[in-house]
Design brief:
Largest sheet: none
Helix content: over 70%
Structural class: mainly alpha
Number of strands: 0
Strand content: under 5%
Radius of gyration: 16 Å
C-alpha cells in the first residue's frame, strides 16, 4: 500500500475516532483504483455502500413486518449487487494475490464472506462520509476514468 494511502486511512480513522475493520483491504482498493484510473467507479461504490448501510439500518429499525420493509429489502439487495459488481471490476485487473484475497474474503458465496462484505460496506461508508465532509480522497493525483476511456 502506498504511504500516502496509509496516511489517509490513519487520518480518516483519527477524524472519526473509529477503527476500520478492513483498513488494509480498503488501502488495496484505493491503490488499485488510483493505479487503474477508476475514480468514478470507486466513488459509485462508496455511494452504494453508504446507501446499503443506511438502508439496512432502517430495515433493522422497522423490522420485517414494518411498513415498506419489502421495498427497502429490494433496494438493499440491488445496492449490494451494484457495490459487489463495482468492487469486482476494480479488483479484476489487480495482482493475483489481491484478487484472490477479495474473492476469498468478500465475494465467496458463503455466510462468512457475506458478513465480511457487509462490514466492508460499513467501512466504505465512512470514506463517503469523509468525502461528504469536504475532504479529498487520495485519488486526485491519478488519471481519471474519463481520460482512460478516450
Amino acid at each position: 500500500m502506498r504511504e500516502s494511502i496509509a496516511q489517509f486511512l490513519d487520518n480518516l480513522q483519527m477524524h472519526f475516532n473509529r477503527t476500520l475493520t478492513f483498513a488494509r483491504e480498503i488501502g488495496l482498493l484505493l491503490d488499485e483504483t488510483k493505479r487503474q484510473g477508476l475514480d468514478d467507479l470507486f466513488r459509485d461504490a462508496l455511494f452504494q455502500a453508504k446507501f446499503a448501510t443506511k438502508t439496512r439500518e432502517v430495515m433493522d429499525r422497522i423490522g420485517r413486518g414494518g411498513e415498506g420493509f419489502d421495498k427497502l429489502s429490494a433496494e438493499f439487495q440491488a445496492s449490494i449487487e451494484k457495490t459487489s459488481a463495482l468492487l469486482k471490476t476494480i479488483v479484476k485487473e489487480s495482482p493475483d494475490e489481491t484478487k484472490q484475497l477479495f474473492v476469498d474474503k468478500f465475494f465467496a458465496l458463503d455466510q462468512n464472506s457475506f458478513s465480511n462484505f457487509l462490514t466492508l460496506l460499513q467501512d466504505l461508508s465512512w470514506l463517503k462520509n469523509w468525502e461528504l465532509d469536504g475532504n479529498p480522497l487520495p485519488l486526485e493525483q491519478g488519471p481519471s476514468t474519463r481520460s482512460r476511456q478516450r
